[in-house]
Write a structure and sequence with these properties.
By secondary structure, the protein is of the alpha+beta class. An eight-stranded mixed sheet has the order 6-5-9-3-2-12-15-14, with no helix packed on it. Strands 17-18-19-21-20 form a five-stranded mixed sheet, covered by helices on one side. The two termini are 38 Å apart. Bound molecules: phenylalanine and zinc ion. The site of phenylalanine (PHE) has 12 residues, from strand 20 and helix 4. Pfam families: DUF3458, DUF3458_C, Peptidase_M1, Peptidase_M1_N.
Amino acid sequence: AESFSTTSTTSTALNSAVAESETTAPVEVFRTDYKPLPHLVTKINMDFVIENGKTTVTSELFIEPNSSVEGGGDLVLDGDESCVKLMSVSIDGKELEKGKEYDLEPQKMIIKSPAPGTVLKTVVEIVPEENTQLSGLYKSGPMYCSQCEAMGFRRITYYPDRPDNMAVFENIRLEADEKDYPVLLSNGNLVDSGKLENGRHFASWSDPFPKPSYLFAAVVGNLGYIEDTYTTTSGREVKLGVYSEKENVDKLHYAMDSLKRSMKWDEDKFGLEYDLDLYNIVAVESFNMGAMENKGLNVFNTAYVLADKDTASDADFERVEGVIGHEYFHNWTGNRVTCRDWFQLTLKEGLTVFRDQEFSGDMNSNAVKRIEDVRMVRARQFAEDAGPMAHPIRPESYISMDNFYTATVYVKGAEVIRMYNTLLGTEGFRKGMDLYFERHDGTGVTCDDFLQAMADANDVDLSQFSLWYSTPGTPTVKYSSAYDASTGVFSLTLEQESKSDKPLHIPVSVGLMDKESGEEVVPTTVLDLKESKQTFEFNVKGDVVPSILRDFSAPVKLMPDSGAVDEEALAFLAAEDTDGFNRWEAGQRLYTSSIFQNMNGKESEKTLQYVFDAFERTLKGEKLDDYSIQAYALLLPTEATLSEEMEIIDPTAIHKARGAVKQKIARKFQNEISAKYEELSGLVEADGELSVDAKSIGLRRLRNVMLEYLCSIKETPEEQKAAAELAKKHFENASGMTDKMAALSALASMEGKGTEARDWALQKFYDDADGYSLVVDKWFSVQALANLPDVLDRVKKLTKHPDFTLEVPNRCRSLVSVFTMNAPAFHNPSGEGYKFIGELLVELDKLNPQVSSRLASSLIRWRRYDEKLGALMKAELEKLKAMKPISEDLYEIVSKALD
Ligand code: PHE
Ligand code: ZN
C-alpha cells in the first residue's frame, strides 16, 4: 500500500475518475420522472478474459420489446466511457456502423430501433488494476472483484443498468491465469470449468433467477475458504462457502456460523427459505461500504466477516453477525423482490435493516439491541435530518445515487418498517409480508406496493401512514397530562409537528405507572396519533406517571409541552418504569438535564441528586438483570446525541460539560465503582475462556464502563499515575480485544504521569497487531479519538505513517473519518481541523468519490454551529466547490450544503 504522502495522482484511472464532470454538468434525476424501458434485456451471456492490466469483456444481450410500453424506439445502454473502452458492437456477426446504426455518448450507447429478438454483442476493455473508485471491476489484494450497486455495472459493460431491467445471467464465463487466480466465482450455479492453454483456466456460471445488473458479481483470485452445508426446512441442501485472503481463513468461522443462524431465523420468522444450491461469501479488503447482497455471491468488507478472539471485539462479533444476517435477508427482501428504481431504495434497505435488527435481538438481547439502535438513530439520523442533506426515506431527487445510502434511508427506513409492525402486530406484519411476496416475487416494485400489501393483508387504510415516505426531518411530539381526581380520568394530550402539511400517523406506545405504589396500572398501549393535537383518556384509580414512547415506537423527538422537563417524573421512571427501554431513557434524560445545567452555569443540586440517585440505583443493579442494560444506563448520552438537543451546537462546551458531570459521578462513587470493578473482574475471570454470548459480553461491557469512570479521575499527578496503572493492568490482563481496546482508549488520552503507559501501550498494541489490517485500523482510530490537546498534529503525523493509505477505504476511515468524530478536536476554534479535512478531500476525491463525499458530510452542517465555526466550515466547502475537476458525488454534497 502506498502511503499518503506518496499517493499517486497521475495514473490514467485517477484522471478518468473525474473526467466526466469536466465535460458534462451534473444532472439531477427526479423520482417522478420515472419511465419504464421500451426495450428489455431478458438474457445476457458474458465472457471475462482477465489479463494483467487488461480485461476484455464480451457481452451478448438478448433484447425484447417491453410489452407494457408502446412505441419501441431506440435502445439506450448505460456505459461509463471513463472506464470501458468499446472495441466492437455487432448484431448477428455484423459490425454496426457508428452514427447510422448506433451512437456513442460519454455515458451511453444508443442502438437505433432494434428489432424484437435482436442479440447485440459488444466487446469492451477495462482496466480493473487502475480502478481506485472501487465501483465496477477492481483489484483488491490478490483478487479481482466487482461492485455494481448502484450503478457500477456500466463500468464493466454497456447495459440498461437500472433495477427494472431483470435478466437471466445465463452464461458468465470467467477466464484467468490458473496459478495466480485459482478461484473463479460468480452468481448462481457452476455449470462448467476447465483448463486452457498457457496455464489458463475458466469457469462458467449460470444464475436461474432473473436479476437486475446491480446484483451481478464476479470474484477472481487466489483465495482460501471454508465450507459447510445447510439443509433447509423443505430438505434442500445448500453448499456454503466463505472466502478470504489465504492468511485469514482461520477467522471465517464466526461468519459461517452466523450465516447458518440467519438461514434458520428467516425460515422460523418469515417462512423464507434459500433458493439456490450454493451460497458464497467473499471477504474483500478494499470495499466502499459494509457488504453487498449479490445473488448467491455476497461480497463483504473484511471488517464484517473476519473475526476471532484475539483480533475482534464483542462489537465486531456483533457486527459480523448482523451484517451476515443483513445480506442473507436481502435474498428475499432485495433480490427476489427488488426495487423498481433507486428512489425506492428504502424498500429493500429499511426492511432488511429491520429484519437484521430483529435477528440480532433474537440472537442476543432484544432490549439491548433496541437501546443500541435508538442511540444510533438519535446520534446519526437525527443529525442528518437536521442538516442540508435532509431527505425523506424515499428521496425526491439525486445527482449521485451513491450519496443516498444514508442513515435516513437505512435506519429511519427501518424505524418506519418497525411502525408497521407496531401498528399491525407481529401476526399482521407477517400477513403483510406473505402477501408482498405472493404479489411481487420476481419483480421490481415501489414503496407504495409494500404499503399496499400491508394494508390489504390486514384490511386497514394506511394512506395517512404513507406520509412517512415523503416527509423529511424529525417530527416532534409534545405531551402534557392532567389527572382529575374526582372522575379518576387521566388525560394525555399529544401534539405533533413535522415538515408534512398534513399530520402524520404516529404510533405512540404508552404505559401508566401508579404514582404511589410504582405499579404499572395501564400496560403498554399503542395510541394512534393521527391529528395534529389529540387527547387520550384513561380511567385510573389514583394519579399516575405516564411512560411515553416506550421502545421508541416512532422516530420522533418527544418533549414536554411546557418546555421544562419534569425531573421528578423522570427520577420516578428511572427507578420504577416496568419498560426497560424507558427506564434507560428516563435516566438518559436526567443526565442530559444535568449536563446542560452545567454548561449554562446553572447547576441545580436537586437535579444532580436525581442523577446520583439514578446512578447509584443502577450501579447496585436494582430492577436490572442484564449487565449490558446496566452498562448503558450508567453511560452518559454521547456528545453526538447531546448535540442534537442544541439549536446552535457548541462542541467544546458539550465536551466540557459532559466531562464535568462524568467527573462528579466518578468522584462521588469512586469507592463503589472500584468495588464493582473488582467484583466484575472476579466474574470475568470465573467466566473463563472468552465467549461472545450476551451474558459474557454484558459483563465485559459493564466492567469497561467502570474502567472508563475510574480512568476519568486524573487531575493530579497521583491520580494520573493511578489511572494509568489501572488501565495498564487492564490492558495486560485483557482476555480479548474488547478489554484491550477499552484499556487502550483510556490510555490513549492520558498525559502527565500517564504518558509513559500511554506510549508503551500504543507501541505494544501496534507490535501485537503484526500488520493485520483490521487491528491496525483500530490502532489508528484509537489515536484519532484521543482526548489530547495536540491530537490533530498526531493525526497529521499518522497520515505519513507507512501503513496509512487513502486507497483502502477502511484505513482512510479509521484515521480520517474517525477524527471528524472527535468533536472538540475536529471543531477546534482555530479551524485547523476543518482545513485538514478540506485539504485531504482534494486528494481523496481524485481517488474515490464515494469515500470523499462521505467524508465531506462532516463539514456540511455548518449552519448548526456559531458564526465563527460556521464560517470556517463554509470556507472549506467553498474551496471544494470551486475545485476542478470535482466528482459528482462530492459536488452534490458541497453544493447542497452551500445552497
Ligand atoms: N446494498 C448494500 C447493503 O446494504 C450496501 C451497498 C450499497 C454496498 C452500495 C455497496 C454499494 O447491504
Ligand atoms: Zn442492505
